Amino acid sequence: MSSKDWLEKDYYAVLGVEKSASSDEIKKSYRKLARESHPDHNPGDPKAEERFKTVSEAYAVLGDEKKRREYDEMRSLFGSGAFRRNARGGGQPGGMPFDVSDLFGGATGGAGADTRFGGGGFTDLFSTIFSGGGGGAGGPARPRGPARGRDVETEVALDFEDAVRGVTLPLSLRAPGVCDTCHGNGAKPGTHPVACPVCHGAGVTTRNQGSFSFSEPCRNCQGVGTIVEEKCPECHGTGGVTKTRTLNVRFPAGVADGQRIRLTGRGEPGERGGPAGDLFVQVKVRPDELFGRAGDDLTLTVPITFPEAVLGTDLRVPTLDGTVTLRVPPGTPSGRVLRARGKGVVRKDGRAGDLLVTLDVLVPARLSDEARAALESFAEQTPPAAREHLDARVRRFS
């Protein structure tokens, strides 16, 4: 991805979001578009594959807070006319003759194409142009060193009990990885990368333009310092291939819906010997047919009859690892919550939450003649409900 791409491509339009969109909105749109255009869902469709690459490229920038800020700054600056093209194709920052192509190292998509700012950010772009160095004012440009790999995010659905108890599951990922044939150096087996004949391994070149001296990443080796004369037949000199990896991921007991598990160093491999990125696993917990969850507590709703609520009863209810008997006291109203201590989710310190049982008093829709007669007899002997405060307000409107 070159600097020129940042000016020419509207990544917000690619993802179908506004420039003011939040990180969550960007992520949601990316996931939807990635699912729709993923090669696995569109086998043999080159347009879908190209669309998937474009969407992934856009999210790689807008999904990273730092890159998104730099992208917005760059497009805002150039879109405002801060660099005006003149008749010979150059620009005039501050009234001085300038060739806009210097911003991109003459990037045309070929061997001389420069990647973004060598990892230094938007500020380093201008320090390279106007002070002659990417390492600070007056300093020489630095060759592109090791670069950390990108983070990878995926989603896993867990059963309710697995999330509560903890589980280890195999996770298959199709993502870029180090080529097993050349072990990442891009050279044909039996050969090795050689020092670039243009920069002699330095990774940078210096040239003069008027009163300015420009140090920039070498266009011949793209700032790496080495070139591959005989490319690996598997990765074609890139050092990486897209492949399927299977990882055994441990989900700790009590993992919650929406929680992200971070696996350090399990993301995309780094470039030029840099460290790998991280893998973030987003957890989705399937609902259980009986139990719910509130933090470390499990919840359960149990129906009881009217006589059980009035007279009281011993209630046997299930837990995740057995059963427990709870005492329903006489005169229990509908909605009362009984607590079974220690029967919830086990915390990290070994202690457990509780099981919260909500009682739901059932009102029968139909009664037999005998039941109705018994209930009417019960009603005659039962004191009326205390509604004096309500009756007083009703009388005001009579």
From TrEMBL:
Chain segments carrying region Disordered: 32-52
Cofactor remark: Binds 2 Zn(2+) ions per monomer.
Residues binding Zn(2+) 1, per UniProt: C179, C182, C232, C235
CXXCXGXG motif repeat start-end pairs: 179-186, 196-203, 218-225, 232-239
Zinc finger (CR-type): 166-244
Protein residues bound to Zn(2+) 2: C196, C199, C218, C221
All copies of domain J, residue ranges: 10-75
Record key words, sorted: Chaperone, Cytoplasm, DNA replication, Metal-binding, Repeat, Stress response, Zinc, Zinc-finger
Main location: cytoplasm
CR-type domain segment(s): 166-244
UniProt-listed Pfam families: DnaJ, DnaJ_C, DnaJ_CXXCXGXG
Top-level taxonomic group: Bacteria
Gene3D superfamilies registered for this protein in UniProt: DnaJ domain, Heat shock protein DnaJ, cysteine-rich domain, Urease metallochaperone UreE, N-terminal domain
Cofactors (names): Zn(2+)
Protein location: Cytoplasm
UniProt free text on domains: The J domain is necessary and sufficient to stimulate DnaK ATPase activity. Zinc center 1 plays an important role in the autonomous, DnaK-independent chaperone activity of DnaJ. Zinc center 2 is essential for interaction with DnaK and for DnaJ activity.
Family: Belongs to the DnaJ family.
Assembly and binders: Homodimer.
Family matches, as PANTHER family: CHAPERONE PROTEIN DNAJ 1, DNAJ HOMOLOG 1, MITOCHONDRIAL-RELATED
Summary of the function given for this chain in its UniProt record: Participates actively in the response to hyperosmotic and heat shock by preventing the aggregation of stress-denatured proteins and by disaggregating proteins, also in an autonomous, DnaK-independent fashion. Unfolded proteins bind initially to DnaJ; upon interaction with the DnaJ-bound protein, DnaK hydrolyzes its bound ATP, resulting in the formation of a stable complex. GrpE releases ADP from DnaK; ATP binding to DnaK triggers the release of the substrate protein, thus completing the reaction cycle.
Protein name as catalogued: Chaperone protein DnaJ
Source species of the chain: Micromonospora coerulea
The gene coding this protein: dnaJ_1
